[in-house]
Specification:
single chain, 9 helices, 45% helix, 8-stranded parallel β-barrel
Length: 233
Amino acid sequence: MESSWLPAKIEHTLLRPEATSAQIEDLCREALQYNFVGICVLPIWVARAAEFLKKSPVRVCTVVGFPLGGNTSRIKALETTQAIEDGADEVDMVINLGALKSMEDDLVREDIQTVVRTARSFGAPEARGKTLVKVILETALLNRAEIIRACHLARDAGADLVKTSTGFGPGGATVEAVRCMREAIGTDMGIKASGGIRTLEAALALLEVGATRLGTSAGVALVQEWRARREAR
């Protein structure tokens, strides 16, 4: 594996409500230093992060309907518009969990489609249609059948990736959940594993079963350990 393999899978994440502007700038510096694929920050910090990272390949991601998913579709669309206007390259929207559990699949699908349509149509002409949309399932609150159904709805709605967790729910990414998600979507979409990824063993196990991105606040430590192991061979 080349030296950039693991960093290219990591979204360096800081979504704590108490995060300061100085910490966001440190996050951006580390993303540049370690060649992470992107960062993920709260909406209030998108413009500052985008300015810091302009002309770099590091992608700026933010969250929509976060962390509960209970916002109306109209509000999620407005959040998406604001995020793109501020410089976001990707948005991670939280699925409508209540509708999903109520078997109101049309409502869930339309909610996702609203964000996807907004992301595809808004922004500068040269960037239009390039904003990635990830759908956060909060898998710790779902059973296997619900995870599969949620993945199918996200795929049908045109999302680019499905994501395990907000990091604020009752559990984070698990091998079982990621494996289930990959089985549900086949090779059609990406999977972002997030929530509680703090060891290199956990990160590699999630990638092994089908994750294509890792959302973690421990990216620096993970890459340092990964590189140290490679050098020790």
